[in-house]
Each structure stands twice: as structure tokens, then as C-alpha cells.
Amino acid sequence: MGFFRKHEVATTRIQLEDALKHLLDCDESGRGATVESLAGSLDRSRREAAEILGQLRGRGLATASDDTHHLTEDGRLYALQVVRTHRLYETWLARETGTPPASWHREAHRAEHHLEAAAVDALAARLNYPRFDPHGDAIPTRDGHLPKRRLVALASWPDGRPARIEHLEDEPENLYCQIVDLGLAPGTLVEDSRHLEDGSIEVRIEGRSLVIAASLAPLIHVGGLEDDDAPPSSLARLSDLPIGGSAVVHELSPACTGAERRRLLDLGVVPGTRIRCEFASPFGTPRSYLIRGALIALRDYQADRILTHSAEIEKENEIAAS
Amino acid sequence: MKTPDEVIKGADELRWQLPQNLHDRITESIYAEAAAIADRSITRPGSSRRLAWQQKLDRILTNPWSAFPIMVLVLGAILWLTITGANYPSRLLATLLVDKGHALLSGWFTALGSPAWFQGVVVDGMYLATAWVIAVMLPPMAIFFPCFTLLEDFGFLPRVAFNLDRIFQRVGAHGKQALTMAMGLGCNAAGVVATRIIDSPRERLIAILTNNFSLCNGRWPTQILMASIFLGTLAPKGWGTSIAALSVLVVAVLGFGFAMMTSWLLARTVLRGEATSFSLELPPYRPPNFWKTLYTSLIDRTLIVLWRAVVFALPAGAAIWLSAHIPVGDQSLAEWFIHATDPFAWMFGLTGVILLAYIVAIPANEIVVPTILMLTVMVTGAGGGQGAGVMFEADNDAVLSILTAGGWTTLTAVCLMLFSLCHNPCSTTLYTIYRETQSAKWTVVSALLPLVMGFALCALVAAVWRWVA
Amino acid sequence: MNPPETHAPGEACQTCPSRYSQLRKLGLNIENSDFVVALAGNPNTGKTTVFNALTGLRMHTGNWPGKTISRAEGAFSYEEKRFKLVDLPGTYSLLSASPDEEVARSFLLFGQPDVTVIVADATCMERNLNLILQVLQITRRAVLCLNLMDEARAHGIDIDIRNLARDLGVPVIPCAARSNEGIPELIREIHTMAVRSDSPAPRRLPLEVPGLRLALDRVEAELQEAFPRLAQPRWVALRLLEGDREIIGAVKSGEIGGLAEPIGASLLRDI
Q1: Are A293 and C92 an interchain contact pair (Cβ–Cβ within 8 Å)?
Q2: Are B411 and B171 in contact (CB under 8 A)?
């Protein structure tokens, strides 16, 4: 990134960059970083944290007023580039590798300090300049532009009002893993939600009811729906379709990403497409579906991620019965 | 006047205001337009006789009860047709090229007064090896591949992939790998090329690396010969052929098992992070264009076999002859190698002759058996044949007596069968793997992986065998 | 918009020898061609069969998507003009980043074929139209080859060729390449399209996506200002907004400015 000479130890760079990210976090939330907060965030002693802050000041990346530290313009730009690298790397992992979501953050955290600016730009180009990372965070541009959004936690969302998941906090990792296991992703439609007495929230998602534990609810941020985005009366998954039944696609689940999503779209699995389940393989999966005039085999996990209008299924069944 | 950079900058800024799922929305709008256009110009009947029988056929071919018997029957029929059907043309070609052609050429060279070593390299080495490859390989390839192409044109193969996909999904591979493996039963190089139908890189690489576990045409003769002269004779009278056939089948099934196991290992270790997406289209059945397919496939395969014979068997032939004639001390290079490696080979239930044969047969597996016979005759001085470094054909009894004289036991035969299944791919296949993967690393892996497995397997079998005996 | 005359020829025409008299299959002899013809289409629509029928080559085919991966080239001559034929990999779309699609997309845009033959499966038109419409955004000089018409007939599918041609704004030729049905008409249409001096106006996509229209209009206008001769400003604008790195590179280097309609110029061009 130009601020370090080659002979400097890599660990110094990692420490300073992590410190910059902490300062950025504090600046964004408006609290201002202190030696204590940095020591806590980096898991270092106060003396070490003070030394790191001293180095940042020395390089003109941070300024101190009283005992709180703030980023300078240069420091902010640098910190945003580290964030940019991290989020781009996560996007790449999500879109182009089979890396499980639980490891995205850890691997990106490792990579963010080692990629050079040119490599990061190449990565951005390769990914067609993505705007959001797989957790729903905006990715800063090369010149440090980062749009802001107001996030509302699911815990404070009113009962019964449909919403869309906009962002998932990826730390702490064990909690994030639980969220992923529930099948949630940024963009997932929350058809209905209800606070239970113990602080957990019962939601209806993609045709299924599930309970989100109280510990997870603060990590899930949601937003209201756009006008043309009203949820249908009820959703079902294509995998629920009986053989011989048909349904109309509502949308592809946001959990379906990367090459998988593009291929399904190209095959004509877009909102409004009528799909009929033709027959199953001797093992039950894959099953073959008639999609836009072509017979396509889909594995169960793929059909799970295609959301359909269940109302249509009922109507179809009625017609078939009569 | 805008500069190009300004245009790009403008687009970069506007990109932030677009909906997040832009790609989805664009595809959706194009499909909406497509549906509208199709509605205006195309009318489809709800059903037709063609559609009805296609659906019926699909039900039968994917029914849990009938799907597998039909698949096994079809594959069995093709293999049977290939093995028995190839016999006659193979004999004819062997008589023509090996017996008559070799004598004729030798006559000419002698008449022209060429030096003995030159005649040896060219006629006894290069020509004979090439003639062998053509005689052994051309007929089965010319039968197997047209059959396969007909099934492909008809639309049967995608249903096989569909039926077997679950097994392949379990080991982290793609159902279409079933087809590339079946293709590999004809020729591994063709199987590797066929992996192009798998469109996700990870699954494709798995299919490429495991294709070698499909016994190819060049290895069937080794299996059949070993099974009939060593295992078949162990069986009670009248059961010999069945036992022999069964043991070859066991080896082939073992190959399938190894392919699955290796796929599973690869998918869970080195190839874990690779991108993956599954897509399998089941095209409608189309009546194949029988004669055209037959003709095209026949011509193509003949050309491939001839090319391979010239490029790979020609130099191999020279190498065999030279190794039998270049002296090292008081023996030939071949004898020296065989004696040096015998103790090492013993650990794996093999012999130095087999190891040498596999080294010279890297270009073309089909010359393994004749090379083994030739080398055994040279080393033991047992009867038959036409002299050192000359490949020949002999009937089963003569082969048995030559090999027994060379110290072979049933264990040697079993280990040879296993090693023939599990060793490095031939050089054509390796070259094809390199061309398809564009990676020296994966080519090396594809060569070493089965080789290491083969040695381990043979060592295990030999140790257990000797311990039991 | 001038729909070309296309009609199914009668039995007598099918067998008339004069129709073949001017066609010479040149196989791999692709030197000194007057025109470049690209073959695009979905996987498994018989693109390779059409390719073989036109060039007399024997590329391997199969009822199986994705048999052709690399770009195959061949040639034929008709009316004393030599045509180089490029068989592009079969793709479902031109919007994604898969290697096949990149090959097809960049050839259609930067290779500037004089004629693009879109091969479609007549039994599965809706899916095929997705790609057809995308190709028509990139090139104006296209001919739609409706292959597998024999299969469509067997399935009782009825296609109003005239209506389809009018709707798409390009000539539509029904074919059954396996039995050579419709191939002579296809060749004639390729020739007509290659030598005609005016440019047909194929259907443009409305792209009714909220928020996209305005952005598209703006980038398109800016592109036209920067590169007045650019033939497909809307498509390029869309790709810019989607962040296609190849297009961004071409805009940056100014290469995109040279992508005008290849009318007439191709007659002089030496390939």
C-alpha cells in the first residue's frame, strides 16, 4: 500500500492495519478510539496498543485529541482500502469458490494484509466491480467512496411486518455459522416475524417456519420491502413439488449465489416461469423439471433454493383433480 | 465531448444506484420478451404421439426397477460386441500385418543388403510394434465408439448420467462423470476429452484424474489373457471361461470403486475449494442418423488409432528392440534391468520383466503382453518366438508354458491384473490430460496417483497371499 | 424494418440440382475469405451439424450439450465469394463471466463477423430466444437458423416463420441440418445478408428494469458523444454498467470506437 517498505516485518503491517480498521469502526460509530478500546480489539497489552497508536500518529494516519484517536484523511483512505480488500476477497470466496460461508471472514482476514493494490484492483475487475460483499456490507471503491445505510436489527423490527434481510454480522464466527445453517443470507425475505417471550423470534422464511435464538437476532439486520416487492400469500420450495405437479417461480433464494445462480437464470428459472416436475432418478435426486420447454435435471439442494408460489401449486392440483 | 475515462467514471457512479439484483432483473426481462415473442409465433400442442412415447421411455429408463438392468444390459452388450466382434478383424489384421507383412519387409531389407541392426530397429522394432497396435486396437475401437456415438445421438447417455448422479454427488463429483468413465472403457484419452461436457471446473478435474480407473481397450487383452490362462485353469472343468470372465468383471468393478474412492478423496482434500455448479440437461430423444454416424465415427477412430500407432508405438518399438540389443557388460540392457529390479518387483508380486514391459509400454498399453512374452523368452531362453526383441503372438498354452518357465505363479497373474488396472495412464492420455488441464501439476498427479495406489495394492495382495500360503 | 421473403420450399425445389451449383464446400481452407460468418447458439441445438453441412467438415457431434468447446473454423464459397465460418461455443446466455460466454461474446463484438448465424432449436424456442435476443443486441447482421424443424414437426409444434421474422427483424430460415433440409436457403440468406448495403434493424430489448433505464440512457448518450460511430451503444452501455472488464478495457483504450457497422468495408478487408 505504499506506506511500508519491504524490510519491515509483516506483523507490523498486520497490527497497524487491524488498528486502522478499529479506528475506522470507532469513527463510523462516532465514539472515538482509545488505547483501551484498541487493546481490547487487538487483544494486546495497553503498552503495545499505545505504541501502535504512536506509530499511526507518526505516519500521519491518525490524530489524537485528549485521549481519543481519530483517523486523518490519509488514515481513513488507507483503512477503507483494507476494508475493501477484505470485502472483495469475501465476495470472491462466495462467488467463485466452494468455501463454506463460515470460513469467509477468517480467510479474508488473512488475505487482507497480503494483497497488493494492483492485485485488489484485478480482483475487483474479475468480479465485475461488486458493490456488496456476501454479508450485505457495501464495498468501498478505490477512491474511498463508501455509501452509508441505516441498519435495523431484526430484534427491533415490528411483529408481522414483512422484511428483507439486508446484512448479517459475520462476527462472532460461531454465531454467524448458526445463522448460515438456518439458511439465511442477505436478501432473504422474512415473510412474517413474531417475538417470543424468551427474546427469540419466530419467523417464516422461504415456506418454512423457524425460530431465531435471542443471541442471533441482534446480528441480523433487516429493511422494509420495496413497493413492487410485496411477498406473495405464501412461498414454497421447488423441491416440495410432487412429481407431475407444476408451480410458478417467485424468485431464486438469495442463498443461491455465484455460478449456480447465473446458470439457473440462464436456463430460464426467473420469476414467472412455470415449472413442472417430470420424474425423479431411481435414488430420488436429482429430479427432472420441464423449464421453458427443456428438460433440466436439478439436485435437491438446487430445487430447495428455487422459491415458488404455493398458491399456484394448489390451483394446479385442483385443476389436476377435477 | 466526453473522454473515454469520463464515460467509465460515469458508469461506475451510476452502478451504485442500480438495483442489487440487476443481473436477475435483466435476465427476467429478456425472458419475458422471449415468452411474448414465442406466444405470438409458436403454437405447441398439449401432447403429441412423439411426446407421449418420449415420456414413456423416460419413465422406463429412470424407473428404480428397470433403470439399472437396462443400463447394465446396454453396456454389457456393447462390451460383448466389442470383444467378440473385434476378434475376427483383429486376426485378419494380425495375419496380414504381423505374419505376412513382417516376413515380406524382412525379405526386402535382406535383399537390399541393409545392416542387421538397421533392419532390427526398423522392421523387428518399429514396424512390428506399430503393426501390433493397429491389429489389436483398430477393430475394438472401430466397434466401441460408433456404438457409443449412436447411444449419444439418441439421447440415452444423459439419462444414464441422471440415474447415477446421486452416487457421484455423494463422492463430490458430477453425474456426467459416469459417461466419461464409460467412454474410458474404450480409450482413456477419449474419456478425458469427453470430460468437456462437465461444466464445473472442480468436477471436471475429478473426472479427468480418475478416468484412468476405467479399464481401456489396450488393457482388456492383458486382463483377459491373465484371467483365462491362470485363473480359468484353476476352476473345475467347464467353468474356466465363466471364472475368467467373472474375474475380469471383478477387476473392472474394482476400477469403478477406486474411481469413486479417489473422487471422494480429491473432493474432500485438495479440490475442496474449487467452484462448483451442477447442470444437466436431458435432451429429447432424437432418432440417430445411423449410417452417417457409423461412417463418421469409423473414419475418425481409424485416423486416431493410426496416428497413435505412428506417433507412440513406432518409437516404443525401436526402444524395445534396442533395449534387448544394447549390451551392458555381458548382457543386454533389458536383461540387466530385469535382473536388477527382480527383487524389488518381488515385493509387489510382480517380476522385473513386467516392470520393464510397463516402462516401454508407457506409450501404448496394448503392447504390454507381447513385450512381456518377448522379454521372458529372451531371459529364460524358453521355446517359441523369433528371437530377442521381436514381438510375436502365441496361443494360450504356449504362453502359459513360457510364463511358467519365467517363474510366474497365480499370484503374479493376479498382481499383474491389479497393476494393469492401477498404473500411470499411457502417454497419449497423459498428453491429453496436460492439454485439457493446461497444468503440469495435475498431469503429474494423474500419473503418480494410480501408480502409487497400484504398488500399494499389489504389495498388500502379495503380502497377504504369501502369508496365507 | 423490411421482413425478408422466407418460405418453405416445395418438394421440387428441395431436389433441384441448380440450387447447389454455386456452393463449394471448402473444409479447412479458410485463407483469403471475403466474409466472416459466426455461428452462435444454445448448446445442443445442432450448431456443429450446421457447421458440418456448410463446410463439409466432420466435426464430432452428439445429442449432448457442450460437445464443442474450442472455436472451430471452416470455409465455404458461394457466388464466387469465400466465407469463413467460425463455430462459437454453445452458450445459454452472453451476460455471464464463464469462459465459453466470454469467447462467444468477444468474438461477436470484437471479431465483427459480417454475418452471425444464430442456430436455434425449433423444439425449445422460448429458451433459445433468450440468447437470440441477446445476440441481436450486439449485431444487426444476423440470420436465424431454426434447426431441428423435423423434430419440431414430429412434436406437432407449429411455427409461424413470417411472423417470427417480422417480430425479430431478421431473416428466419427453417432447417433440418441433419438431412440438409434448408441449408441451401440458409447459404443464400447468408450471402444476401453479407452483400446487402443497408442495415436491418433487429428487435431491441426494452430492458424494463426499474432504475436501469435512466442510467442506461445516460451512459449511452455519453458513449455516443465519445464514440459517434459506435454501432451498439446501448449494449456497450449495459455492459459498462454491469462492470464487464473487457468492455471497460476496450472503452479505455478507445478500441470500442472502431466497432462501427462492417458494411462495405468488409469487402475490402483482407483477413
Answers
A1: no
A2: no
* Fold for the domain defined by A152-229: SH3 type barrels. (2.30.30)
Q: Could you say which DSSP state residue A276 is in?
A: E
Quick check: C42 and C92 in contact, CB under 8 A?
yes
Q: In C, which residues are within 8 Å of A268 by CB distance?
A: 126-127, 130
Parts of chain A belonging to CATH 1.10.60: 76-126
Q: Which residue of A has its CA nearest to C93?
A: A266
Q: Which tens digit of pLDDT belongs to each residue from A35-58?
A: 888 888 888 888 888 888 888 888
Residues with Cβ within 8 Å of C99's Cβ and at least 6 positions away in sequence, in order, are none
Stretch C20-27: mean pLDDT: 64
CATH topology of domain A76-126: Diphtheria Toxin Repressor; domain 2 (1.10.60)
Query: Residue with C-alpha cell 430420488?
Result: A284
Chain C residues within 8 A of A128 when measuring between CB atoms: 97, 242-245
Residues of chain A with CATH 1.10.10.10: 10-71
**Which residue, among C45, C48, C63, would best test binding to B if mutated, counting the most B CBs under 10 Å from its CB?**
C63
Q: Which residues of A touch B16 (CB under 8 A)?
A: 131, 147
Mutate to test the interface with A, among C42, C91, C130 (most CBs of A within 10 A): C130
Overall fold of domain A10-71: Arc Repressor Mutant, subunit A (1.10.10)
ipTM score: 0.83
The 10s digit of each residue's pLDDT in C184-229 is: 999 999 999 998 877 778 888 878 787 788 888 889 998 888 888 7
- Which of A89, A256, A299 has the most B C-beta neighbours within 10 Å, making it the best mutation to test the interface with B? A299
Helix (H) or strand (E) holding B374: helix B368-380
The model's pLDDT over C127-139, given as tens digits with 9 standing for 90+, comes to: 999 999 999 998 8
Tens digits of residue pLDDT in A134-164: 888 888 888 888 777 777 888 888 888 888 8
- CA dihedral defined by B163, B167, B171, B176, rounded to 10 degrees? -20
Cβ-defined contact of A273 to B62 (cutoff 8 Å): no
Write out chain A residues lying below 8 Å of B202, CB-based.
98
Q: Which CATH architecture has domain A235-321?
A: Roll (2.30)
All partners of chain C with 3 or more CB pairs under 8 angstroms: A, B
User: Within chain A, which residue ranges are assigned CATH 2.30.30.90?
Assistant: 152-229, 235-321
Q: Which of B20, B27, B277 sits opposite A270 (nearest CB)?
A: B27
Taking the C-alpha atoms of residue B335 and residue B327, their distance in angstroms, rounded to an integer, is 9
CA pair distance B250, A254, nearest whole angstrom: 47
In the predicted model, residues of chain B with pLDDT beneath 70 are: 1, 20, 273-276, 381-395
pLDDT band for C270, please (50, 70, 90 cuts). Answer: very low
Amino acid type, C250: A
